Amino acid sequence: MDLVPPNTQADLRHVSAKSSEQRLSAFMHEVSGRALIMMESATKNTDIAMDLVQEAFISLYKAYSKKPTEEWYALFYTILNNKLYDWKRKEQRSAIPFSLFKKKNLDFEDDAPEEQIADDYHIDPAEILSQHMTINEIKEAIDKLPIRQQQAFMLRAWEGFSTKTTAEIMQCSEGSVKTHYYRATQALQQMLSYLSPYHQNKGMTDE
């Protein structure tokens, strides 16, 4: 499992000697912004997203405060995703009257059978999240993805976790991660293609 994801900005050389509270504070400062965006995309509700992130930090500290800081990253996102799953299941149950009396599939959307897809991590996220796109445009596109695709894309492309670690965090197979990640990149490229210079130049030529 990855310890510190490649895309993190934290400098762990100076936090190992700090108290658990100081380490948690530094860790929260490092990951809370990205984690909040991930949960906002999944829940479509800022207040709920903040609650989930806060609960995940509390659970992390209670269960793993003695763990080295570098081990917190994967542990935190595993806890956070478990809390998201629990919230999603409760929402699905409460939205269906008499759900206790009928069989209901509570799996997340986009959990289709795995496809034989190569790990496309060589896709440069910069090609999708390029300088020609604003943060709001990017976030709006990610919000439209099914939850599992959001998770796979953000854990792989944004946090930089490996396929193996992402699968452990999402509690699915590596093949599922590859499928979700591939579908996410394809969908984002299609949704954001109108922002690329090539697309814009082509439109001017067609006129």
TrEMBL record:
It comes from the Bacteria. GO terms for molecular function: DNA binding; sigma factor activity. Keywords: Sigma factor, Transcription, Transcription regulation. One of its GO terms (biological process) is DNA-templated transcription initiation. Residues 136-187 form the RNA polymerase sigma factor 70 region 4 type domain. SUPFAM superfamilies: Sigma2 domain of RNA polymerase sigma factors, Sigma3 and sigma4 domains of RNA polymerase sigma factors. Pfam families: Sigma70_r2, Sigma70_r4_2. Gene3D superfamilies: 1.10.1740.10, Winged helix-like DNA-binding domain superfamily/Winged helix DNA-binding domain. Residues 43-93 form the RNA polymerase sigma-70 region domain. InterPro entries: RNA_pol_sigma-70-like (IPR039425), RNA_pol_sigma-70_dom (IPR014284), RNA_pol_sigma70_r2 (IPR007627), RNA_pol_sigma70_r4_t2 (IPR013249), RNA_pol_sigma_r2 (IPR013325), RNA_pol_sigma_r3/r4-like (IPR013324), WH-like_DNA-bd_sf (IPR036388). Belongs to the sigma-70 factor family. ECF subfamily. This is RNA polymerase sigma-70 factor, ECF subfamily.
